[in-house]
Specification:
Blueprint: E1 2-8, E2 12-22, E3 31-35, E4 38-48, E5 51-57, E6 59-60, E7 66-67, E8 70-75, E9 81-84, E10 87-91, H1 99-106, E11 110-113, E12 119-122, E13 126-129, E14 134-137, E15 145-148, E16 164-165, H2 166-170
Parallel strand pairs: 2-10
Antiparallel strand pairs: 1-2, 3-4, 4-5, 5-8, 6-7, 9-10, 11-12, 11-16, 12-15, 13-14
């Protein structure tokens, strides 16, 4: 949560607001904030028919009375930011893969552990070089492998003499 100084319409220029970053609308449920010495509780955030309905508590109505609930609706078309009563909601965009990154992830990968315990990922099936205690891929590319967290895949050992493919790993039974 961060504080910002923003502009909200022609009536509330240079107001201080609370910024709330969310990944999905449901993250707003039961969110509390303060604005002009008043506390607000967002009871729910529900999207129906391309409209976002916010249920607010503790607002001052048009006659100046404190009310318990108020429903407000906003269009979801091109909605990335939403501001109301000193709260600025920013809907985080889902990350997007570049074509290059997607191609990288689609490549076959092999996992092998060196004699010293370092676990590497290779883009070509490596061969074990016993005298060096390492694995080597049949390529001249300097970036043919990279190390990963040594705690992963404890069953992959140097002594087994086996490099596991991504496809082989994906076929294994999953335990919790």
């Amino acid at each position: 949560m961060q504080k910002g100084n923003g502009v909200k319409g022609k009536y509330m220029e240079n107001m201080d607001y609370t910024i709330k970053n969310i990944d999905k609308l449901e993250d707003l449920k039961d969110f509390e904030w303060e604005y002009k010495n008043k506390k607000f509780l967002l009871l729910d955030a529900v999207a129906f028919d391309d409209m976002l309905t916010l249920v607010e508590k503790n607002y001052i109505d048009a006659d100046g009375y404190m009310s318990e609930k108020r429903y407000r609706s906003f269009s979801l078309k091109n909605l990335t930011e939403l501001e109301f009563f000193g709260l600025k909601v920013v809907l985080n965009e889902k990350p997007k893969l570049s074509k290059e990154d997607k191609e990288f992830l689609e490549k076959e990968m092999y996992f092998a552990r060196e004699r010293n315990g370092t676990l590497y990922v290779y883009f070509e099936k490596p061969v074990q070089v016993l005298e060096d205690g390492q694995w080597e891929a049949n390529t001249f590319n300097t970036f043919d492998c990279f190390p990963i967290d040594e705690e992963k895949f404890p069953f992959i050992t140097w002594k087994s003499g086996k490099a596991w493919s991504k496809a082989e790993l994906m076929e294994l039974e999953v335990i919790e």
